[in-house]
Here is the input.
Amino acid sequence: MFTVNRLFYKRLVSYYKFQFANFRSVVDWTVALYLVIPGLLTAGYFYMTWWQAAPPWIEHIPYFVMAILLFILATRGTVRLFVEDGDQLFLLQRVHWFSALLKRGLMYTLIVHCAASAVFVMLLAPLLLLQYELSSFELVILFVFICCFRVSAALLGNLLSVRFNGWRYGLLITFVQLFMAVLFVFLVLTCTKQPLLLTVTCMGLALLTGWMIRRRLRVKGAFYHDVDHEQKQKMKFAALLLSTVIEKRPRQRRRKPLLFSNSNLIFRKRTPASGLAEMFVKSFFRSWTQIRLYLQFVLIAAGALSFHFMPGLIKGALWLAFGFLLVYWMKTYGKEMLSSEFVQLFAWKKEDSRSALVKAVFIMALPGFLIISAAFGISISSWSGLIVMIPAGGLVIYAISKLLTPW
Here is the structure.
């Protein structure tokens, strides 16, 4: 028998399947192996060291800044109701079903906000306990306060978006957020060491949350608003991914590309393999989208290797991982070019295609990896490390290209 519970769980599972599919489109096994897993291990290592002793840099951050950070984390949530456009054909005519679906959506919202608050507090717990000298009981009360405040802020924002729109909503929500920021920071700074007062505040926020939930369930005429809001929440991650790939139409198009605008030859010796490799390289560096993603990758990798507090062994592992990841990206681009309709018009020998791919991948990956290697060398041994790591980076990226590209 089809019930409201089955309907809600079906939509919840469908939502997470959709988000997981989007995640899989970005993080395949190579990205996870060379970037995500080393990053998580590095973060876990530093988190464990925080429990032993607070990091030196936290001494320069006052508790006021930590309170602002907690406020930002406490106002990032929203309300999920799992309403769909097709519900107007069935659920709107059955008020009991529609109300039950909204209740389950609000219950899911409460659970998610409490779980997110628990994660944030656990991540900051060693800093709050060791540096700012909170007791365990005070930390628990602070967690409850953040939960109540986060849920109340999400419900208040949703109610205001239902009632107002346009510039009125933007102006009102700005004033409300400023007021909530002042209130939150004041309560955290003054009441953290007074658990009883913060407990009373939590009770008040809990009563306010209950009132806003009842108010939200009684709102009439918000169906299309809720459908639009749910669609935006569902597509938020996908829109973020597409924003980095889809090239916006420029206001003024360049007549010439930024690089290789004169079509000069790259290789002196003209062979089918060198001609094909030259086409790959020029196609890549003439695309502004590819250049932007390339620069973002290089800057993030160089920045990650510039942290002086990271152990040298972990830096070396990340340096190699960035090399493998960069070569894999260039190899993927080259294979896409090989399978394009224009390239398939010509009968290329397998040896020429393989040789062209190796050459192109090495040339495309070399500039970025030299910058990454320079940042790695400076971070481990200043200028002497820079002199050593630049040629070492060239040799390593050449070896990785030879090793990984023929597969």
About this structure: Residues 4-243 form one domain. The mean pLDDT is 84. The first helix runs from residue 4 to 26. The two ends are 52 Å apart (CA to CA).
